[in-house]
Amino acid sequence: MSSLGPARIVVIGSTMMDMISYMPRIPDTGETLIGDRFALGFGGKGANQAVMAGRLGADVWMVACLGTDVFGDMTIDNFHTAGIDTTYVTRTSSASSGVAPIWVEAGGDNRIVCVSGANAHLTSSQAIRAVESIPRVDVVVGQFEVPQDVTAAGFRAAKERGALTVLNPAPAAEISADLLSVTDWLMPNEVEFESLAGSAPTDAAIAELARRFGVNVVATLGEAGAAVLDGSGSVVRIAPPTTTAVDTTGAGDAFVGAFSYGLAAGLPPAAAARLGCACATSSVARAGTQSSFPQAAELEAALSWATA
Fold this sequence. Notes:
The protein has 308 residues and is an alpha/beta fold. It has a single domain, classed as Ribokinase (UDP-N-acetylmuramoyl-L-alanine:D-glutamate ligase, 3-Layer(aba) Sandwich). The protein has 10 helices and 13 strands. The strands form 2 sheets. The chain has a 9-stranded mixed β-sheet, sandwiched between helices. The protein has a 4-stranded mixed β-sheet with strand order 3-2-6-7. A hairpin with a 4-residue loop joins strand 6 (99-105) and strand 7 (110-112). The model has no long low-confidence stretch (mean pLDDT 93). Catalyzes the ATP-dependent phosphorylation of 2-deoxy-D-ribose to 2-deoxy-D-ribose 5-phosphate (dRib-5P), allowing the use of deoxyribose as the sole carbon source. Homodimer. The record marks 16 as: Important for substrate specificity. It holds the Pfam family PfkB. It is found in: Cytoplasm.
């Protein structure tokens, strides 16, 4: 849908069925609280990032594992509706499809529990086969909701083909040396950054983390936007457009998907991060996860703002 270059992206990652409860506040231990409303939606960091990149115009292949249950059927249908290629999505009867109970309180803050289910059954051979089989790949994206060795295998195949690799280290966890060695871009949020670096994402801390891990870094900073460090050696901070937050669920995934699309389409890293900020800002203004991602005119506005 954009005037940028063609973008071909492989996402190795998770799918989740989001079960979202909206409430005035989070209940205390042992307390029962009456919520405001409930919604069922499609999620999973990998799936969210794939859908966001696809909305911007990328050709996207999803590499994932689903259960042989109704949530798996619904997820496949949702991918097809979103234009995501499911050739490399497998099914297993050994586990349920992934689910994510989510609590959202007034003001938009959220708490999420991810139950991996079939996501843990994704294999390295599946990731390698996907990356090696697709005619051209620009960017391969991964997260921590599937086994790290699977992502590392897919990233290694991507590097052998000259594709860029983007790792969103979420949920926060130690990164294996094997995975780091084939990662080009590391994209933590503030919590994940502090887990990795032991400090808040100051310019000096971002530069030190990039040096120590041998990667480029984009730190997402919530309402403060993002900070980007690439090969130039300087940190660029990007303030997002203003908005009123309704639900922050999925905003980080909107950023990762949009940033990955920007890189694949040939944008400089700072412009790709501006696109990520614009899409994430649009997302937090509405409730839901994938259902909150920008569409149509909002996407055009985000691209215009990012490349101005």
